[in-house]
Amino acid sequence: MALASIRWSFFVVGLIFFSFGISVTINVQHLGIHPWDVLNVGLFEIFGFTIGTWNIVFGITLIIVSWILDKSYIKLGTFLNAFLVGMFVDLFLWLDFLPEASHSWTDAILMGIGIVVMGFGGGLYNAARVGSGPRDGFMLSISDKLGAPIGRVRIITESSVLVLGLILGGPVFIFTFIFTFIQSPIFQFTFLRFEKLINQIQAKHHEKHLTSSRASG
Q: Which residues of 111-124 are buried (b: 16+ CB within 10 A; e: fewer)?
């Protein structure tokens, strides 16, 4: 139970950081945001609802497709991810405490902070190993089904999403195209570090349990 609590704590904290990073980038969206957020903002501008709601809609849709293709990537954390990220993004934007765009050089700093926080949060919640995010699970399922490299599937998927978001009037600019180059290394670094930390905690807990069992035996 203690180990499960640790994993879920890492997962929830990671989602909060990830959602916070998204919210920061949305406030300076004139510099360009992540392709999936371009689509969410574009739909928000045309049809209303909230950016978080569109995030949830696409999350659920991708989970359904992934479920049909390959159930192995769908876990409880996948469903929670679909709902909680959208809810947290809407909460942060509703609280209205984040810096607004000044259309000066400081916006680039805010964008950088948002991307770094997203990479950190993404690595943190994935390290918990309680379920891939809906988008990751979808791309992994497609990759397995077609026998195609995940990198190629990701490029094609995010490029398609970006084009659709652009057609809908979503914010596309320079940071949209360099987003992945900044976020991915941070994600990988954070993921590896926290996965190692969680495994160390698990190993210590297991060793303590064995010691306790031997002592009581």
A: bbbbbbbbbbbbbb
